Protein backbone atom coordinates (compact mmCIF):
# COMPACT_ATOMS: atom_id res chain seq x y z
CA UNK A 1 0.00 0.00 0.00
CA UNK A 2 1.41 3.37 -1.04
CA UNK A 3 0.66 5.80 1.78
CA UNK A 4 3.07 8.54 0.72
CA UNK A 5 0.30 10.70 -0.80
CA UNK A 6 -2.09 10.38 2.14
CA UNK A 7 -2.82 13.69 3.86
CA UNK A 8 -2.52 13.17 7.61
CA UNK A 9 -4.89 14.78 10.07
CA UNK A 10 -3.60 16.73 13.07
CA UNK A 11 -3.65 13.72 15.40
CA UNK A 12 -1.79 11.57 12.88
CA UNK A 13 0.80 14.29 12.26
CA UNK A 14 1.49 14.45 15.99
CA UNK A 15 2.03 10.69 16.13
CA UNK A 16 4.17 10.68 12.96
CA UNK A 17 6.44 13.23 14.61
CA UNK A 18 6.75 11.03 17.72
CA UNK A 19 7.68 8.06 15.55
CA UNK A 20 10.24 10.19 13.75
CA UNK A 21 12.08 10.66 17.04
CA UNK A 22 12.99 6.96 16.98
CA UNK A 23 15.43 7.40 14.07
CA UNK A 24 18.43 9.63 13.47
CA UNK A 25 18.97 11.99 10.53
CA UNK A 26 20.11 9.08 8.39
CA UNK A 27 16.91 7.16 9.08
CA UNK A 28 18.56 4.60 11.36
CA UNK A 29 17.02 3.49 14.68
CA UNK A 30 18.39 5.37 17.68
CA UNK A 31 19.96 2.74 19.92
CA UNK A 32 18.30 2.08 23.27
CA UNK A 33 15.54 4.61 22.55
CA UNK A 34 12.21 4.09 24.30
CA UNK A 35 9.69 2.49 21.99
CA UNK A 36 6.13 3.61 21.31
CA UNK A 37 2.79 1.91 22.04
CA UNK A 38 0.12 3.32 19.69
CA UNK A 39 -3.49 2.67 20.65
CA UNK A 40 -6.90 3.80 19.49
CA UNK A 41 -10.17 2.69 18.00
CA UNK A 42 -10.24 0.85 14.64
CA UNK A 43 -9.68 2.76 11.43
CA UNK A 44 -7.79 5.72 12.90
CA UNK A 45 -4.60 5.08 10.95
CA UNK A 46 -2.37 3.28 13.47
CA UNK A 47 -1.16 0.64 11.01
CA UNK A 48 -0.73 3.19 8.25
CA UNK A 49 1.41 5.39 10.50
CA UNK A 50 3.53 2.47 11.64
CA UNK A 51 4.03 1.24 8.07
CA UNK A 52 5.03 4.73 6.85
CA UNK A 53 7.55 4.91 9.66
CA UNK A 54 8.83 1.38 9.00
CA UNK A 55 9.33 2.14 5.30
CA UNK A 56 11.29 5.28 6.16
CA UNK A 57 13.85 3.40 8.27
CA UNK A 58 16.98 2.83 6.18
CA UNK A 59 18.41 0.00 8.27
CA UNK A 60 18.10 -3.60 7.13
CA UNK A 61 18.00 -4.65 10.77
CA UNK A 62 14.26 -4.13 11.11
CA UNK A 63 11.32 -6.53 11.34
CA UNK A 64 7.59 -5.93 10.98
CA UNK A 65 5.01 -8.52 12.12
CA UNK A 66 1.28 -8.79 12.40
CA UNK A 67 0.80 -10.17 15.89
CA UNK A 68 -1.17 -13.22 14.70
CA UNK A 69 1.64 -14.11 12.29
CA UNK A 70 4.38 -13.55 14.84
CA UNK A 71 2.60 -15.67 17.43
CA UNK A 72 2.08 -18.51 14.95
CA UNK A 73 5.76 -18.44 14.02
CA UNK A 74 6.78 -18.19 17.66
CA UNK A 75 4.83 -21.30 18.63
CA UNK A 76 6.39 -23.26 15.77
CA UNK A 77 9.91 -22.04 16.49
CA UNK A 78 9.52 -22.53 20.24
CA UNK A 79 8.43 -26.14 19.71
CA UNK A 80 11.53 -26.75 17.61
CA UNK A 81 14.05 -24.91 19.81
CA UNK A 82 12.60 -25.58 23.26
CA UNK A 83 13.57 -22.16 24.63
CA UNK A 84 11.92 -18.77 24.30
CA UNK A 85 15.22 -16.89 23.92
CA UNK A 86 16.40 -19.17 21.11
CA UNK A 87 13.00 -18.90 19.40
CA UNK A 88 13.13 -15.10 19.52
CA UNK A 89 16.72 -15.08 18.24
CA UNK A 90 15.59 -17.23 15.31
CA UNK A 91 12.67 -14.94 14.44
CA UNK A 92 14.37 -11.58 14.96
CA UNK A 93 17.99 -12.25 14.11
CA UNK A 94 20.01 -9.06 14.56
CA UNK A 95 16.99 -6.71 14.45
CA UNK A 96 17.33 -3.42 16.29
CA UNK A 97 13.78 -2.31 15.38
CA UNK A 98 10.65 -4.46 15.71
CA UNK A 99 7.11 -3.39 14.81
CA UNK A 100 4.07 -5.35 16.01
CA UNK A 101 0.68 -4.60 14.45
CA UNK A 102 -2.61 -5.36 16.28
CA UNK A 103 -1.10 -6.29 19.62
CA UNK A 104 -3.72 -7.81 21.91
CA UNK A 105 -4.03 -10.22 24.83
CA UNK A 106 -7.24 -12.14 25.49
CA UNK A 107 -6.11 -15.59 26.64
CA UNK A 108 -4.24 -16.25 29.90
CA UNK A 109 -2.11 -18.96 28.30
CA UNK A 110 -1.02 -16.61 25.52
CA UNK A 111 -0.52 -13.86 28.11
CA UNK A 112 2.22 -15.79 29.87
CA UNK A 113 4.09 -16.41 26.62
CA UNK A 114 3.62 -12.77 25.60
CA UNK A 115 5.07 -11.67 28.94
CA UNK A 116 8.18 -13.77 28.40
CA UNK A 117 8.51 -12.49 24.83
CA UNK A 118 8.30 -8.85 25.90
CA UNK A 119 10.84 -9.40 28.67
CA UNK A 120 13.24 -10.90 26.14
CA UNK A 121 12.74 -7.96 23.76
CA UNK A 122 13.21 -5.38 26.51
CA UNK A 123 16.37 -7.15 27.70
CA UNK A 124 17.81 -6.84 24.19
CA UNK A 125 17.09 -3.07 24.13
CA UNK A 126 15.35 -3.47 20.78
CA UNK A 127 13.38 -0.39 19.68
CA UNK A 128 9.77 -1.55 19.75
CA UNK A 129 6.70 -0.03 18.05
CA UNK A 130 3.32 -1.55 18.84
CA UNK A 131 -0.19 -0.80 17.55
CA UNK A 132 -3.28 -1.90 19.46
CA UNK A 133 -6.98 -1.18 19.85
CA UNK A 134 -6.41 -1.26 23.60
CA UNK A 135 -4.47 0.98 25.96
CA UNK A 136 -2.08 -1.14 28.04
CA UNK A 137 -4.34 -1.07 31.10
CA UNK A 138 -7.12 -2.80 29.12
CA UNK A 139 -5.05 -5.75 27.89
CA UNK A 140 -6.34 -9.14 29.05
CA UNK A 141 -9.61 -7.57 30.23
CA UNK A 142 -11.03 -10.79 31.68
CA UNK A 143 -11.41 -9.96 35.40
CA UNK A 144 -10.51 -13.54 36.34
CA UNK A 145 -7.00 -13.14 34.90
CA UNK A 146 -6.30 -9.43 34.50
CA UNK A 147 -4.42 -9.07 37.79
CA UNK A 148 -1.94 -11.73 36.70
CA UNK A 149 -1.02 -9.61 33.67
CA UNK A 150 -0.68 -6.31 35.54
CA UNK A 151 3.11 -6.77 36.12
CA UNK A 152 3.57 -7.11 32.35
CA UNK A 153 1.43 -4.03 31.76
CA UNK A 154 3.66 -2.16 34.18
CA UNK A 155 6.73 -3.24 32.23
CA UNK A 156 5.12 -2.13 28.95
CA UNK A 157 4.48 1.33 30.40
CA UNK A 158 8.01 1.44 31.83
CA UNK A 159 9.67 0.69 28.49
CA UNK A 160 7.30 2.25 25.93
CA UNK A 161 5.73 5.69 25.51
CA UNK A 162 1.96 5.22 25.34
CA UNK A 163 0.50 7.40 22.57
CA UNK A 164 -3.17 7.67 21.56
CA UNK A 165 -4.25 7.70 17.89
CA UNK A 166 -7.98 8.23 18.20
CA UNK A 167 -9.41 10.87 15.88
CA UNK A 168 -13.17 11.14 15.32
CA UNK A 169 -13.24 9.40 11.93
CA UNK A 170 -13.02 5.69 11.10
CA UNK A 171 -11.45 6.03 7.67
CA UNK A 172 -12.42 2.52 6.64
CA UNK A 173 -16.11 3.47 6.75
CA UNK A 174 -15.47 6.33 4.34
CA UNK A 175 -14.74 4.50 1.10
CA UNK A 176 -15.09 7.76 -0.81
CA UNK A 177 -12.69 9.63 1.50
CA UNK A 178 -9.82 10.79 -0.68
CA UNK A 179 -6.57 9.19 0.37
CA UNK A 180 -8.17 6.88 2.94
CA UNK A 181 -5.87 3.93 3.63
CA UNK A 182 -7.08 0.54 2.42
CA UNK A 183 -6.28 -2.95 3.59
CA UNK A 184 -7.78 -5.59 1.34
CA UNK A 185 -6.44 -5.58 -2.21
CA UNK A 186 -10.02 -5.96 -3.44
CA UNK A 187 -13.24 -7.64 -2.48
CA UNK A 188 -16.98 -7.45 -2.07
CA UNK A 189 -19.57 -7.86 0.59
CA UNK A 190 -22.64 -9.55 -0.85
CA UNK A 191 -25.93 -10.14 0.94
CA UNK A 192 -27.31 -13.55 -0.04
CA UNK A 193 -29.97 -14.90 2.35
CA UNK A 194 -29.72 -18.65 2.71
CA UNK A 195 -32.59 -20.50 1.09
CA UNK A 196 -34.89 -22.16 3.62
CA UNK A 197 -32.74 -21.00 6.51
CA UNK A 198 -33.99 -21.55 10.04
CA UNK A 199 -32.25 -18.77 11.94
CA UNK A 200 -32.62 -20.24 15.42
CA UNK A 201 -31.00 -23.48 14.35
CA UNK A 202 -27.59 -21.86 14.03
CA UNK A 203 -27.24 -21.37 17.77
CA UNK A 204 -27.93 -25.01 18.60
CA UNK A 205 -24.82 -26.64 20.13
CA UNK A 206 -25.02 -29.60 17.81
CA UNK A 207 -25.54 -27.72 14.54
CA UNK A 208 -24.35 -29.84 11.63
CA UNK A 209 -26.25 -28.17 8.79
CA UNK A 210 -23.04 -26.73 7.39
CA UNK A 211 -22.79 -27.33 3.65
CA UNK A 212 -19.32 -28.85 3.61
CA UNK A 213 -17.62 -28.73 0.23
CA UNK A 214 -16.11 -31.56 -1.76
CA UNK A 215 -12.51 -30.33 -1.82
CA UNK A 216 -10.25 -31.33 1.06
CA UNK A 217 -7.71 -28.66 1.97
CA UNK A 218 -4.91 -29.87 4.23
CA UNK A 219 -3.73 -27.91 7.26
CA UNK A 220 -0.77 -29.83 8.65
CA UNK A 221 -2.24 -33.23 9.58
CA UNK A 222 -5.86 -32.01 9.47
CA UNK A 223 -8.08 -30.70 6.72
CA UNK A 224 -11.09 -28.52 6.02
CA UNK A 225 -13.66 -28.91 3.25
CA UNK A 226 -13.85 -26.13 0.66
CA UNK A 227 -16.48 -25.66 -2.04
CA UNK A 228 -13.84 -25.06 -4.68
CA UNK A 229 -10.11 -24.49 -5.09
CA UNK A 230 -8.45 -23.20 -8.23
CA UNK A 231 -4.78 -22.32 -7.98
CA UNK A 232 -4.53 -19.46 -5.50
CA UNK A 233 -8.33 -19.09 -5.14
CA UNK A 234 -10.47 -20.74 -2.49
CA UNK A 235 -14.24 -20.73 -1.94
CA UNK A 236 -15.26 -22.02 1.48
CA UNK A 237 -18.30 -21.87 3.77
CA UNK A 238 -18.13 -19.94 7.03
CA UNK A 239 -19.35 -23.04 8.85
CA UNK A 240 -16.71 -25.29 7.28
CA UNK A 241 -13.86 -22.99 8.32
CA UNK A 242 -14.98 -21.11 11.42
CA UNK A 243 -17.27 -23.83 12.75
CA UNK A 244 -14.34 -26.20 13.21
CA UNK A 245 -11.45 -25.90 15.70
CA UNK A 246 -9.15 -23.88 13.46
CA UNK A 247 -6.64 -21.34 14.78
CA UNK A 248 -4.98 -18.12 13.69
CA UNK A 249 -1.90 -20.18 12.85
CA UNK A 250 -4.05 -22.24 10.47
CA UNK A 251 -5.26 -19.08 8.74
CA UNK A 252 -1.69 -17.83 8.42
CA UNK A 253 -0.75 -21.11 6.75
CA UNK A 254 -3.75 -20.97 4.39
CA UNK A 255 -3.07 -17.32 3.56
CA UNK A 256 0.36 -18.33 2.29
CA UNK A 257 -1.33 -20.68 -0.20
CA UNK A 258 -4.43 -18.73 -1.26
CA UNK A 259 -4.51 -15.05 -2.25
CA UNK A 260 -8.12 -14.89 -3.45
CA UNK A 261 -10.72 -15.80 -0.82
CA UNK A 262 -14.50 -16.17 -0.97
CA UNK A 263 -16.21 -16.88 2.35
CA UNK A 264 -19.78 -18.06 1.81
CA UNK A 265 -22.98 -18.14 3.82
CA UNK A 266 -21.81 -16.02 6.77
CA UNK A 267 -24.70 -15.71 9.27
CA UNK A 268 -25.41 -13.10 11.89
CA UNK A 269 -22.62 -13.62 14.38
CA UNK A 270 -24.94 -13.41 17.39
CA UNK A 271 -26.62 -16.58 16.09
CA UNK A 272 -23.47 -18.72 16.26
CA UNK A 273 -21.30 -19.86 19.18
CA UNK A 274 -18.81 -17.18 20.31
CA UNK A 275 -15.79 -19.26 19.31
CA UNK A 276 -17.09 -19.41 15.72
CA UNK A 277 -17.46 -15.63 15.63
CA UNK A 278 -14.02 -15.15 17.16
CA UNK A 279 -12.50 -17.28 14.40
CA UNK A 280 -13.99 -14.91 11.83
CA UNK A 281 -12.36 -12.01 13.70
CA UNK A 282 -9.00 -13.79 13.51
CA UNK A 283 -9.45 -14.78 9.86
CA UNK A 284 -10.21 -11.22 8.78
CA UNK A 285 -7.17 -9.99 10.74
CA UNK A 286 -4.87 -12.43 8.95
CA UNK A 287 -6.25 -11.76 5.46
CA UNK A 288 -6.29 -8.01 6.01
CA UNK A 289 -2.69 -7.88 7.14
CA UNK A 290 -1.61 -9.98 4.16
CA UNK A 291 -3.48 -7.63 1.75
CA UNK A 292 -5.37 -10.54 0.23
CA UNK A 293 -8.53 -10.39 -1.83
CA UNK A 294 -11.67 -11.30 0.13
CA UNK A 295 -15.29 -11.60 -0.94
CA UNK A 296 -17.85 -12.19 1.81
CA UNK A 297 -21.19 -13.70 0.87
CA UNK A 298 -23.37 -13.06 3.92
CA UNK A 299 -26.95 -13.67 4.98
CA UNK A 300 -27.49 -10.15 6.31
CA UNK A 301 -26.06 -6.63 5.82
CA UNK A 302 -22.80 -5.84 7.60
CA UNK A 303 -24.42 -3.75 10.34
CA UNK A 304 -26.66 -6.68 11.27
CA UNK A 305 -23.83 -9.19 10.91
CA UNK A 306 -21.94 -7.74 13.88
CA UNK A 307 -24.83 -6.29 15.90
CA UNK A 308 -25.18 -7.35 19.56
CA UNK A 309 -21.95 -9.38 19.50
CA UNK A 310 -20.01 -9.05 22.75
CA UNK A 311 -16.59 -10.15 21.53
CA UNK A 312 -13.13 -8.60 21.77
CA UNK A 313 -12.08 -6.90 18.53
CA UNK A 314 -15.48 -7.18 16.82
CA UNK A 315 -15.41 -3.44 16.10
CA UNK A 316 -12.11 -3.88 14.24
CA UNK A 317 -13.66 -6.66 12.14
CA UNK A 318 -16.64 -4.47 11.28
CA UNK A 319 -14.31 -1.62 10.36
CA UNK A 320 -12.19 -3.81 8.12
CA UNK A 321 -15.14 -5.47 6.40
CA UNK A 322 -16.58 -2.04 5.70
CA UNK A 323 -13.76 -1.54 3.19
CA UNK A 324 -15.26 -4.22 0.97
CA UNK A 325 -17.43 -2.80 -1.78
CA UNK A 326 -21.14 -3.49 -1.34
CA UNK A 327 -22.71 -3.49 -4.81
CA UNK A 328 -26.41 -2.85 -5.30
CA UNK A 329 -26.76 -6.02 -7.36
CA UNK A 330 -25.67 -9.42 -6.01
CA UNK A 331 -23.02 -10.08 -8.65
CA UNK A 332 -19.60 -11.56 -8.12
CA UNK A 333 -16.47 -11.85 -10.23
CA UNK A 334 -14.65 -15.14 -9.87
CA UNK A 335 -12.63 -17.41 -12.11
CA UNK A 336 -15.12 -19.11 -14.50
CA UNK A 337 -14.92 -22.55 -12.90
CA UNK A 338 -15.56 -21.03 -9.48
CA UNK A 339 -18.52 -18.84 -10.39
CA UNK A 340 -21.06 -21.60 -9.82
CA UNK A 341 -19.63 -22.41 -6.41
CA UNK A 342 -21.12 -19.33 -4.76
CA UNK A 343 -24.83 -19.68 -4.05
Description:
34% of the residues lie in helices and 17% in strands. The protein is built from 11 helices and 12 strands. The chain has helices at residues 10-20, 46-56, 67-81, 84-92, 108-123, 146-159, 238-242, 248-255, 274-289, 302-305, 314-321; strands spanning 35-39, 62-66, 97-101, 127-132, 160-164, 189-191, 215-219, 222-226, 228-230, 233-237, 260-266, 293-298. The chain has a 5-stranded parallel β-sheet with strand order 2-3-4-1-5. The chain has a 5-stranded mixed β-sheet with strand order 6-12-11-10-9. A two-stranded antiparallel ribbon has the order 7-8. A hairpin with a 2-residue loop joins β9 (228-230) and β10 (233-237). It is globular and about 55 Å long. It starts with 9 loop residues before the first helix and ends in a 22-residue tail after the last helix.
Keywords for this structure?
343 residues, alpha/beta, five-stranded parallel β-sheet, five-stranded mixed β-sheet, 11 helices, disordered C terminus
Short description:
This protein is α/β, with parallel strands linked by helices and 343 residues long. The protein contains eleven helices and twelve strands.
Mean pLDDT across residues = 85
As a percent range, the share of helical residues equals: 25-40%
Order of helix and strand elements from N to C terminus: HEHEHHEHEHEEEEEEHHEHEHH
**Rg for CA atoms:** 21 Å
Low-confidence stretches: 176-181, 196-209, 329-343
Query: By helix and strand content, what is the structural category?
Result: alpha/beta
Strand order of the largest sheet: 2-3-4-1-5
Q: Could you give a short account of the major beta sheet?
A: 5 strands, parallel
